[in-house]
C-alpha cells in the first residue's frame, strides 16, 4: 500500500485509465461512493425519480442534471452536518429520455430539461469526521434553483433598455439561470456561479452582437423556443431575452428563501466561473475567464471593503467597483516563440501584464460605449481595448497558501498566431498559467505571470513542459478545466477532453508547486466513460476528495448507452428497479480513505 500518514491524502499516482472504462478509478487504499445522483428527490414531497415519465414538476423537486461546480461545506463546530452546492450546467435529452417519450410528451421533456438546469443546495450528514457524507431529503437548506427561478438583476445594467422584454418591462427580473459551469464560494459565504454557454438556448436574429456571443439563427438543439417564446429572439417583445443571461449570479446558500441575483457589473460573457478573494485593502476581487477560443481573462475589484460577519453589506460589494480585462506581455523576443512549445532562451514562458479598466459602475473607459453597453456587450468592449486573446480561459482561482492565481487554458485548436502566454500552434492539450499580482495585491493593476505547464502526454507529444520536472515521471494530462487546492497549497486540476486527445478517461491530478518537485503531475482518479471530471473539492484533512461526474455516457443515446454509471443495471433488464435506472446518471462522488480513518 502507498505510505500514508493521517489526513494527508497520501497516494501513489494511478496509471492513466483507458477511456472506455465505465467506473471511477481511485488509488490503492481508497474507495468511492455517490453522495447524490440526477433525479434523487430533495424534498419530503418530491416525486420519486421515474426516468420514463419525467416532467417539469417532478424534476423541480429532484437533483438536476450534469452537475459541474461543487462545494462541500461542513457546519462550523459540527463535523456531522453540512451542505453541498452544485451546478447543473446543461442537459442531454437524447440520453435522459426515451425517444418515444420525447415525441409524445415534448412539452414535458422541455420543462423537465429547463428544471434540470441551475443549481442545487442540499443538506448533508455523516457519522463522523472523515466518513462518507449522505444527503438529507427534506433538509432545511435544500433548494433547487432552475431555469425558471426568479432572479433580481443588480448593478449598472439593471433596468437598461437592453434588458427589457415584454414579460419584464423593468429589465430587473429574470426567470432562471442557464449553463452554470464552474463557480466559487465567496469569503462572505455566498456562491458565485458563471452562466457560460447561454447562446445555445436562443434562436437569434443574426445581429453582430449575437454573432460575437455565438447565438445562431436556426432552430436550437433543444428546441425550447417551440414551447416558450422567450427563447426565440425573433418573437416580438423577446429580442433582449438573451441579454439577460451570460452573467455571474450570486446566491446565499444558507437562506433558501433568498432571491438569487445577477450581478451585471461583472460583465456579460461566457463566464466559466467567478472566484472571489479579499485584497490586502479589504476590497473584494473576482476573477473570471471567458471560455471561448481567443477570448479573455477578466477581474472585478470592488469599491467597498469586505466586512467580516456582515453578509448583508458584503452582498452589495459586487455592485460598485471596476471591471478589468487582462493584457499579457511576454519578456522574450517574439522570434523565440516557435509555436511548438520550445522554451525561449531565458528558460521560461513568462512576462508581465496589466489589467485594463473597462468600466466602473459610473464611468466607461471604452470609447463609444456607455457603462451599460460595456456590461451587456463586454466582449465587444474588450475587443476594442487590446486585451490578450487566450486559449479558452476556464477556471481561474487563487491559491489560499501562496496567494498566486492559477488559470486553466483548456485548449485552442484554432490557435495560429502565437504569443508567449499562448505559445503553442493548434494548442490541443491546453496549459496552465500562474499569475502573481504585483505586491501580492489582488487589487493591483499590474501582474507577473509564468506558464506552469504545457499539458500533454510526454509519450506522444513534443510540446509538453512541466516547469522543468522530468517528463517521464509525470502522469499524462490534457485539457485542464477546473482547479482546486489542498491545505498544503498543491494545485489539483480536473480535465475535460482527455479521451479525445490523449485517449485516456478524464481525470483529477495533483500538481506540486513548491520545491524541486514543482511541476510534478500525479493522477488521483479517473471518471467513468465519456464523463468529464468537474468541481473537485479536496478535503485532505478529512482524507476525502469530491468530484462531480458530469455527462457520463455522453457519446451514447437512449437504447445505446455507453455508460450505466452509477447504477449499472443490466441494460437487457427492466429500465428502472427501485431508485436505480439502466441509464447514466451524473452524480456527486466522494472518494475516501478506507485504511487510515
Ligand atoms: Fe463548461 Fe468552460 O466549461
Ligand atoms: Ca520568457
Ligand atoms: Ca468547465
Ligand atoms: Ca470545459
UniProtKB/TrEMBL annotation:
Highest taxon, organism lineage: Bacteria
| UniProt-recorded name of the protein | Secreted PhoX family phosphatase
What organism is the protein native to?
Answer: Micrococcus endophyticus
Amino acid at each position: 500500500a502507498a505510505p500514508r500518514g493521517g489526513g494527508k491524502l497520501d497516494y501513489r499516482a494511478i496509471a492513466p485509465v483507458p477511456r472506455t472504462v465505465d467506473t471511477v478509478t481511485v488509488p490503492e487504499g481508497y474507495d468511492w461512493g455517490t453522495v447524490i445522483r440526477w433525479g434523487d428527490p430533495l424534498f419530503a414531497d418530491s416525486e420519486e425519480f421515474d426516468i420514463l415519465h419525467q416532467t417539469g414538476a417532478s424534476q423541480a423537486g429532484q437533483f438536476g442534471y450534469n452537475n459541474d461546480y461543487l462545494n462541500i461545506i461542513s457546519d462550523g463546530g459540527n463535523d456531522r452536518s453540512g451542505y453541498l452546492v452544485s451546478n447543473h450546467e446543461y442537459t442531454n435529452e437524447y440520453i435522459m429520455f426515451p425517444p418515444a417519450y420525447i415525441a409524445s410528451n415534448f412539452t414535458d421533456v422541455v420543462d423537465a430539461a429547463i428544471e434540470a438546469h441551475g443549481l442545487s443546495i442540499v443538506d448533508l450528514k455523516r457519522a463522523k469526521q472523515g466518513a462518507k457524507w449522505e444527503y438529507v431529503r427534506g433538509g432545511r437548506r435544500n433548494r433547487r434553483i432552475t431555469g425558471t427561478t426568479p432572479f433580481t438583476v443588480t448593478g449598472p445594467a439593471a433596468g437598461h433598455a437592453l434588458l427589457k422584454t415584454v414579460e419584464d418591462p423593468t429589465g430587473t427580473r429574470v426567470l432562471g439561470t442557464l449553463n452554470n459551469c464552474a463557480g466559487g464560494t465567496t469569503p462572505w459565504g455566498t456562491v458565485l456561479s458563471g452562466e457560460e454557454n447561454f447562446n445555445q438556448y436562443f434562436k437569434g436574429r443574426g445581429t453582430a452582437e449575437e454573432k460575437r456571443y455565438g447565438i445562431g439563427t436556426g432552430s436550437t438543439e433543444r428546441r425550447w423556443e417551440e414551447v416558450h417564446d422567450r427563447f426565440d429572439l425573433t418573437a416580438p417583445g423577446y429580442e433582449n431575452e438573451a441579454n439577460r443571461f451570460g452573467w455571474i449570479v450570486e446566491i446565499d446558500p444558507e437562506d433558501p428563501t433568498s432571491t438569487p441575483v445577477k450581478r451585471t457589473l461583472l460583465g456579460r460573457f461566457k463566464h466559466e466561473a467567478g472566484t472571489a478573494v479579499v485584497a490586502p485593502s479589504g476590497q473584494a476581487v473576482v476573477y473570471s475567464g471567458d471560455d471561448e477560443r481567443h477570448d479573455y481573462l477578466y477581474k472585478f475589484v470592488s469599491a467597498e471593503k469586505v466586512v467580516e460577519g456582515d453578509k448583508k453589506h458584503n452582498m452589495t460589494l459586487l455592485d460598485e467597483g471596476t471591471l478589468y480585462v487582462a493584457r499579457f506581455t511576454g519578456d522574450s523576443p517574439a522570434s523565440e516563440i516557435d509555436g511548438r512549445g520550445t522554451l525561449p532562451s531565458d528558460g521560461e514562458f513568462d512576462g508581465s501584464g496589466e489589467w485594463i479598466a473597462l468600466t466602473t459602475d459610473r464611468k466607461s473607459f471604452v470609447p463609444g460605449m456607455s457603462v451599460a453597453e460595456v456590461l451587456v456587450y463586454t466582449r465587444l468592449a474588450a475587443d476594442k481595448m487590446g486585451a490578450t486573446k487566450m486559449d479558452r480561459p476556464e477556471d481561474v482561482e487563487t491559491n489560499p497558501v501562496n496567494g498566486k492565481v492559477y488559470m486553466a487554458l483548456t485548449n485552442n485548436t484554432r490557435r495560429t498566431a502565437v504569443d508567449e502566454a499562448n505559445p503553442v500552434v493548434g494548442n490541443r492539450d491546453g496549459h496552465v498559467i500562474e499569475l502573481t499580482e504585483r505586491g501580492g495585491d489582488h487589487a493591483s493593476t499590474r501582474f507577473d505571470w509564468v506558464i506552469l505547464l504545457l499539458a500533454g502526454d510526454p509519450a506522444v507529444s513534443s510540446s509538453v513542459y512541466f516547469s522543468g520536472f522530468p517528463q517521464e515521471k509525470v502522469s499524462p494530462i490534457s485539457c485542464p478545466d477546473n482547479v482546486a487546492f489542498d491545505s498544503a497549497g498543491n494545485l489539483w486540476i480536473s480535465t475535460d477532453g482527455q479521451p479525445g486527445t490523449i485517449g485516456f478517461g478524464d481525470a483529477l491530478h495533483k500538481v506540486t508547486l513548491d520545491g524541486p518537485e514543482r511541476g510534478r503531475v500525479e493522477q488521483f482518479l479517473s471518471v467513468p466513460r465519456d464523463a468529464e471530471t468537474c468541481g473537485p473539492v479536496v478535503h485532505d484533512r478529512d482524507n476525502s476528495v469530491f468530484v462531480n461526474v458530469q455527462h457520463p455516457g455522453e457519446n451514447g443515446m437512449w437504447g445505446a448507452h455507453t455508460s450505466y454509471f452509477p447504477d449499472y443495471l443490466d441494460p437487457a433488464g427492466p429500465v428502472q428497479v427501485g431508485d436505480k435506472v439502466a441509464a447514466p446518471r451524473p452524480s456527486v462522488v466522494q472518494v475516501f480513505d478506507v485504511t487510515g480513518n
